[in-house]
Amino acid sequence: MKNKSNRLVTISQLINTHEIHNQEELLMLLTDKGYACTQATLSRDLKFLKVVKIATNDGKYIYTTHVDKKSVKIQDSTSGFVSNGFIGLEFAQKLALIKTVPGYASSLAMVIDMSEPYEFAGTIAGDDTILIIPRDGTTESDIRHRLVLIFPELEDRIRP
Amino acid sequence: MKNKSNRLVTISQLINTHEIHNQEELLMLLTDKGYACTQATLSRDLKFLKVVKIATNDGKYIYTTHVDKKSVKIQDSTSGFVSNGFIGLEFAQKLALIKTVPGYASSLAMVIDMSEPYEFAGTIAGDDTILIIPRDGTTESDIRHRLVLIFPELEDRIRP
DNA sequence: CTTCATAATGCATAAATATACAATTAGAGT
DNA sequence: ACTCTAATTGTATATTTATGCATTATGAAG
């Protein structure tokens, strides 16, 4: 149709400027802007634009545009091996510290980072120590749980 | 359930290593791995993990993890600046964390250190994370302000 | 202008996904 | 152990999204 590309541009703009929860909402906004189409067309448009629907922190879903993750893909089968360097877990000042055999910290930290644990705002690895900065509100128990998930074989040494 | 977090980790891994077109497919893969649940649970898990379904170039949809646009845009227009590599700023436990593209943390941290910012007691750089330890009494706003002074071109991404 | 090919769209419906509700379970505290 | 609370899950279903098919529109070529 004559309007298609205009509509696509408008859809992009609407998505960048509004919290749109479903295609029906988008349809109404488009109608307000003078575009007439059906939900079926929107579905196709969103497919074309590679728009995605993502959960928000307040329990809803909104549409947004997507950027590919540039992630280093490393096989997780190594995690059992890497955890060999683990020595111990300690807590201080609301931070968690993992002691490792010298040289093992960065590889262990990488395994942790790869799982992108929600509870950790970030990790910093030295040579034989990993510093884990938990997100505010995260408890020691939360941290131990998360680490057990990543290194099941270390459960005994992570659990209090 | 004891299995939930394990399942979440497994789901993440499956999504990173397989082309999964719908929740039913994911369900089968999980079943193969020994997890038993229903589509309803998967829907909730994917919501929790902020997994998105995105159109592929061959006309299908696959699940993938999402990275926010703001976090990834590394424009060529900033390539002349040392701030290249900056991904995002976060606060946790009274500390500031700067996420960078892997390998960029130390050079960025060096720029920060060179300006000897009074508000920072010190910085520690890993591979893709810089930890900033603020002096006592420094607020989040102070930190943002200082960082804008050091990296004016990142103002938009440093300001809350 | 007519014909053909292609693209765009709507309709109806299939397919996929989300969720209200109830039941169950895990943990924390006593 | 017992109680309480919050978390987890399945069932059934509502909601949302995708698409097969038919129709219409667009544009190119004769």
Short description:
2 copies of one chain form a homodimer. Chain A has 160 residues and is α+β, with helices and mostly antiparallel strands.
Unreliably modeled segments of chain A: 69-82
Strand content of chain A: 15-25%
Helix content of chain A: 40-55%
Which strand order does the major sheet of chain A show?
Answer: 3-4-6-5
The description of the largest β-sheet of chain A is:
4 strands, antiparallel
Structural class of the helix and strand makeup of chain A? alpha+beta
Just name the CATH architecture of the largest domain in chain A. Answer: 2-Layer Sandwich
Largest interface (CB within 8 Å) is between: A-B, 43 and 41 residues
User: Mean pLDDT of chain A, nearest integer?
Assistant: 75
Total number of distinct structural domains of chain A: 2
Indicate the multimeric state: homodimer
User: How many H/I helices of chain A?
Assistant: 7
Taken in chain order, the helices and strands of chain A follow as HHHEEHEEHEEHH
Number of strands of chain A: 6
CATH topology of the largest domain in chain A: Gyrase A, domain 2
Q: What distance separates the N and C termini of chain A? A: 65 Å
CATH first level of the largest domain in chain A: Alpha Beta
Radius of gyration of chain A: 23 Å
Shape of chain A: elongated
